[in-house]
Automatic annotation (TrEMBL):
GO terms for molecular function: phosphatase activity. InterPro entries: His_Pase_superF_clade-1, His_PPase_superfam, PGM_Phosphatase. One of its GO terms (cellular component) is cytoplasm. It comes from Saccharopolyspora kobensis. Gene3D superfamilies: Phosphoglycerate mutase-like. Residues 1-30 are annotated as: Disordered. PANTHER family: BROAD-SPECIFICITY PHOSPHATASE YOR283W-RELATED, PHOSPHOGLYCERATE MUTASE. This is Broad specificity phosphatase PhoE.
Amino acid sequence: MSNSEPTRALSDRSPGERGANQPRETAKREIEREATTTVNRGDAERTVVHFMRHGEVHNPEGILYGRLPGYRLSDRGEQQAKLVAEFLAGRDVVHVVASPLQRAQQTAEPIGATFQVDVATDERLIESENRFEGLKVSVGDGALSSPKHWPKLWNPLRPSWGEPYLQIAHRMLGAAQRARAAAAGHEAVCVSHQLPIWTLRRFLEGKPMWHDPRRRQCSLASLTSLVFRGEELVRIAYVEPAGATDPKVTGA
């Protein structure tokens, strides 16, 4: 797998330098350039798999909802999904797949409609398991301030409070390979969640999978795009068609 300079043009920026000030047309040109720099357009061996994070969720309680049922997109989240569908219009998307959770399925709907394809479901795209699910985890007034929860935090490298990073990376890599095969020579969109997408990216870039959650580059409705030549990953691109969001927002 070639991974030299996989994110140079877009992804080496800090969260404060990107997103909100990135015009949508500029972002569209950047991802177009990133997705075609290494391989020529029309190349039958070229496949792009876009990993999209779902849109904003209606979460007035501010809890970490994880895999809990019933968490739908907010009005803003629905608009974000439509913006990404418009952003991708005109590209060669032939396969759309989503996590089974409601917010991911809702995010995928306008994209499937834009390209007139049915939205498939892949369990491997689901949100990561988390032992703080259903609790508030904001700094100062959340579950993290309670001593009874501290034993869950003993190993941040695994992590001890949830699904192992390596397990997340392996299942997401499996989802990526299935999408690549389904869209061979074209493009696919996989709608998933922040931690699974970010873990996959760090795994592919050969970086440690443990990290500071405040530094994740995976905004709501963002696209992390894997460019393949055949089975070889040749580039990773990142854009925020719906603008930047704060990675510290609970349950986003």
